[in-house]
Amino acid sequence: MRLPVQLFLPALTGVWLVGCSCNRDDNLTPQPDPEETFNDIGSWLGMSVMPNGDPAVSYYDRTKGGLGFAIGKLGTDSISWKIEEVDGYAGDDGLNPGDRGTHTDLAVADDGTAHVAYRDETNSSLRYGKRSPDGTWELGSGGSGSGAKADFGHWSSIALDAAESPVISFYDAGAEALRVSHATESGFSSEVVDEGGVGTYSDLLIDDGIEYIAYYDATNGDLKLAVGSAGAYEIEIVASEGDVGKWPSIAKHGDAFVIAYQDAEFNDLVVATGTPGAWTSELVDDSNYRGADNEVVFINDAPAVYTFDGYNNDLLLAEQTPDAWNIGKVAGDEAALGFHVEALNVGSDVYVASYDYTNRFLFFAIY
User: What span, in angstroms and rounded, lies between the C-alpha atoms of 175 and 220?
Assistant: First the structure.
């Protein structure tokens, strides 16, 4: 694993150039001057990559209760960020549209169009934003719920189908169900995929036109997987021993799928590998308070998981080798990191983002 650059996004609106640190937690960007005003940004992260390889993130602005979006311009050993206030911010008329931007996720199409799913906390609903390559935004509903009381849009996960149309999986708390929204000419059409106290922590992957949604069954303590497409899903249990399935992250490498998840009974990190109908689970890390906020990537052609150390508040990496899983700290000596972690394979690099709970910044690094 190489550590060419480690960067922080200060919680300010504008364009920022941040210096390089090449030795893990050495020379981290200092905390802001308390005399200055900073927004608390970076929680509820979503991350994708622009067509030119620059990182893009969506996030929640806790200070203003809004959805933020940023594109990073990569230099040799630095990065500049262009930040946009998307939704939930007071307009020129001074009116506040509500608290928006939690539970966000992001997908970028080949032409640079950004698609963002997020939750409207004020109205307890799911919202959707589309950013055209010219930088203009279209905002609206991301779907509907089915409960007696509207309360949906939790744990949204967005992916693009073969036509690069957005698909969103999310938890409908009002109905205690997993739902999926598909884009139509007039908006989004939503349907129930599974119900009965299921659907939190959903993670959506689309491969060869087939949708794969990993999620937690809170009623039975199971990790479940929905496979199919609009109007036709098959549900299976991936793991069921104990209370398992929180914080799933699903990825595919070759013909096999990998799902990292938490054994909530013992707070362990576990990885399931296989294909629908045939899964093998392996204990990866049974140290204190492990297995939350997982993101699966592939390093040296093998599965790896960026994850949160809830005991030490560190960002960890678990790498599979032929002999064992190697667990190491990536960052966290100078700050509480690993919250809302996101990770992506980009060529030979891995882009990693996390919420820095100490500095209330968005942490970004390339490994």
Answer: 16
Order the strands of the 232-239 sheet from edge to edge.
Answer: 198-207, 210-217, 222-229, 232-239
Which strand ranges, in their side-by-side order, compose the sheet holding 100-108?
100-108, 114-120, 125-131, 137-141
Alpha carbons 347 and 153: distance in angstroms, whole number = 32
Q: Give me 195's structure tokens.
A: 């119900």
Structure tokens at 133: 């390559």
Give the N- to C-terminal CA distance of the chain in Å, as an integer.
Answer: 6
For residue 28, what are the CA distances in angstroms to 7, 339, 356, 359? 8, 18, 12, 11
What strand order describes the sheet that includes 244-253? 244-253, 256-263, 268-275, 278-285
366 vs 2: CA distance, rounded Å: 8
Q: Supply the DSSP symbol for 33.
A: P
Residue 47 is given by DSSP the state E
| pLDDT tens column, 21-54 | 222 233 333 344 444 557 899 999 999 999 999 9
Tens digit of each residue's pLDDT (9 = 90 or more) over 269-325: 999 999 999 999 999 999 999 999 999 999 999 999 999 999 999 999 999 999 999
Phi, psi (rounded to 5 degrees) for 111? -90, 5
Spatial contact of 320 and 6, defined as CB atoms under 8 Å apart:
no
Tell me the CATH class for 5-366.
Answer: mainly beta
- From 175, 306, 325, 188, select the one nearest 247 (Cα to Cα): 306
